[in-house]
Amino acid sequence: MSFSVTELSNILKLASASPTEAKALIKLLAVDVSKLLGDGKYLLETPTKNLTAFSEKPLQNGSKYWVELSTKPHETLIISKFLQQPKILQELQNLSLKFDTKELHELLSGNKTIESFKTTLLDHLSTAVSKDDFTQVSNLLLSLMQNTITIPLLFGHSFGVFQMKKRYNKTTKKSQLDFYAALLKLGPISGTIMFIEDEIFIDLDVAFITTKLFLEANLKDIRYKITLHVRENIDALYQFQTNSLLDINA
Known about the structure:
single chain; 250 residues; alpha+beta; 2 domains; five-stranded mixed beta barrel; 11 strands
């Protein structure tokens, strides 16, 4: 099966847009819940400043979220929608091994993507700078053993995680590529690249209407057929296991 790495890379490159370029995402923020102030108000930490916001539903103190904010002049910000960030995003954020979009493109464009990625992980495992680094690279290898490529991504000062897995679709009787991304600026995205009657279709699910509108505006020139949906539950293709034995020869 062949697929368009370029189109996949274009989607991910949108996450590296500067705040000025990404005006459509101004109300979608990645935040840390720093403190409960009472009466539904919370102190939220962002990379650039602290905010006070109100939420009708409780947030967990110390947890990381994506939040959509709405406001009226001279009033407290209101969290109109929030979603807790997945553990995999937090677990890999301090990993010393990260890929930029160019390196991701080169990796996916190669003839032996899995073999090349496994070699990179094993090389990094042998020179891991800490116990946590060793553990997380081992988790990347475990993911690979389950036929899922998990890649830590770095976009300037922004971080994300990308996963992809090839599987057979019994309905179309053809292989397809499933992918997942957790991106600080766009939230979680899942999708599928399929061949149907010799045409390529890209189906995307996003968690926030803001993200959907932003992608629609920026992917209008993609040459393949793309459909976008807002979906509540978007899960990673592979979740890391806390206590697992690693067999690097598998």
